[in-house]
Design brief:
It catalyses: an N-acylneuraminate + CTP = a CMP-N-acyl-beta-neuraminate + diphosphate. The protein has helices at 60-71, 84-92, 111-121, 140-151, 211-217, 244-254, 272-276, 295-306, 323-333, 344-354, 372-377, 389-394, 407-429, and strands at residues 34-39, 54-55, 58-59, 76-81, 96-99, 127-131, 157-164, 199-210, 225-230, 267-271, 282-283, 289-290, 310-316, 336-340, 362-365, 380-383, 397-398. It has 436 residues and is α/β, with parallel strands linked by helices.
Length: 436
């Protein structure tokens, strides 16, 4: 995506007594250390522990951490927090952790104070990128485009904006005799939307700044400054979009799901016990064993099969399902059922190789610690809501439902949604926009 760029005050590089970054030589001399920093305080007045609340199957902070890590632009990616649970999630998503001091953990503490503390404790950092945890539709290409303005164009600070077409009017306080007036509109000459460029507004996704700017000017926007424009569909701010289900739908459509292309998923491995079933075996009075399978889940499996995604069901030597039960499950679902050992990856590597697939083509649904390696390796992976934390942290998607009660159906719908999204993007890429 190309970004519209406009030079703001300070473009001559002389403001704040700063030397433009370009003159500090990116091509020669000491290599600049570029860090990403996500601020994630434990306290939240609106939603408790909002930064790690699940959004579309991923902790809120996980969305921006995935984009930052996958961009491969940063020498280090950090989360600044004062909370143990946020620290665990941050490390699980590949970040280092800065335990902020109590002085910058108060309700009244500013983001700048926390950033300054971080940079004092990490003097090797030359450029800081403050990424907001509440912007889950951030993609690596946004960060890349913005950073190039520093490394190639010599800007000291970059911030993200979105174009809004909204007419603004002066607020009139209750009881006042004052009349309102327009800020950006001439009512007799009201423009059509297509005839008006709109206005640029900060969307809060990210702020790049040089070390010199933060230390000397004590701000994140100054010196030689410009902006990076993001399209509206990527400008989701959870601080504003407080309707969580609405935000989830936006993220499912426009969020960044990783390097692997979802449309390539050809095979799903799914555990029977704990995913397709509740993980329980029922015994009748005569000693006959039974399991319960939810029809929503079997419908989800059929949806995948119809979309040419093969489903292989797994039973484990750690939690065995009898051969007779496995055969009945196979008949019911039309899926191959195979048994795996303590490390499922050992057996599944062979299955993937026989089909001449890469692991990016594979989805995996597990529910316990033995599934961690497969959850990490698969292109798409999921666990039910009631899985242990170790499995949840390894999975790329956490279902709202628990095992045996619709979780498989939910993951199936997620796979199909991402496939549809990727196919739509491929069609968009084929459009000849010059001759459209």
């Amino acid at each position: 995506m190309s970004a519209r760029k406009r030079n703001l005050p300070g473009d001559n590089g002389a403001e704040d007594g700063l030397v433009p970054t370009a003159k500090q030589s990116w091509s020669g001399g000491k290599k600049k250390h570029i860090s990403a920093l996500i601020l994630a305080r434990g306290g939240s007045k609106g939603i408790p522990l909002k930064n790690i609340k699940m959004l579309a199957g991923v902790p809120l902070i996980g969305w921006v951490l995935r984009a930052a890590v996958d961009s491969e632009l940063f020498d280090s990616v950090w989360v600044s927090t004062d909370h143990d649970e946020i620290e665990k999630v941050a490390k699980a998503w590949g970040a280092k952790v800065h335990r902020r001091s109590p002085e910058v953990s108060r309700d009244s503490s500013s983001s700048l104070e926390t950033i300054q503390e971080f940079m004092r404790l990490n003097p090797e950092v030359d450029v800081i990128c403050h990424i907001q945890a509440t912007s889950p539709c951030l993609h690596p290409f946004h960060l890349k485009g913005a950073l190039e303005l520093i490394t190639e164009k010599g800007y000291d600070s970059i911030f993200s904006v979105v174009r809004r077409h909204q007419f603004r009017w002066k607020e009139v306080k209750t009881g006042s005799n004052e009349l309102t007036r327009p800020f950006n509109l001439d009512p007799p000459n009201r423009p059509r939307r297509q005839d008006w460029d709109g206005e640029l507004c900060e969307n809060g996704s990210f702020y790049f700044a040089s070390k010199e700017l933060v230390e000397r000017a004590k701000c994140m926007q100054g010196g030689k400054v410009t902006y990076f424009e993001m399209l509206p569909e990527y400008s989701v701010d959870i601080d504003v979009d407080i309707d969580w289900p609405v935000a989830e739908q936006r993220v499912l459509r426009y969020g960044y799901f990783g390097r692997n292309t979802p449309e390539m998923v050809r095979l799903l491995f799914c555990n029977v016990s704990g995913c397709l079933t509740e993980g329980r075996i029922f015994l009748s009075a005569s000693g006959e064993e039974m399991v319960s399978i939810n029809t929503r889940d079997t419908t989800g499996i059929r949806m995948l099969q119809k979309a040419d995604v093969e489903v292989v069901l797994l039973t484990s030597s750690l939690d065995p399902v009898t051969k007779e039960l496995a055969e009945k499950v196979s008949q019911r679902t039309g899926c191959k059922v195979m048994q795996v050992g303590e490390e499922p990856l050992d057996a599944l590597k062979l299955e993937v190789g026989q089909r001449k697939l890469d692991w990016k083509d594979v989805a995996y649904m597990g529910n316990d610690t033995q599934d961690v390696n497969c959850l990490n390796l698969a292109g798409m992976s999921a666990v039910p809501r009631d899985a242990p934390n170790m499995a949840i942290n390894a999975a790329k998607y956490t279902c709202r439902g628990v095992g045996g009660k619709g979780a498989v159906r939910e993951f199936a719908e997620h796979i199909l949604l991402q496939k549809k999204k990727a196919q739509s993007q491929m069609e968009q890429d084929r459009i000849d926009r010059k001759n459209f």
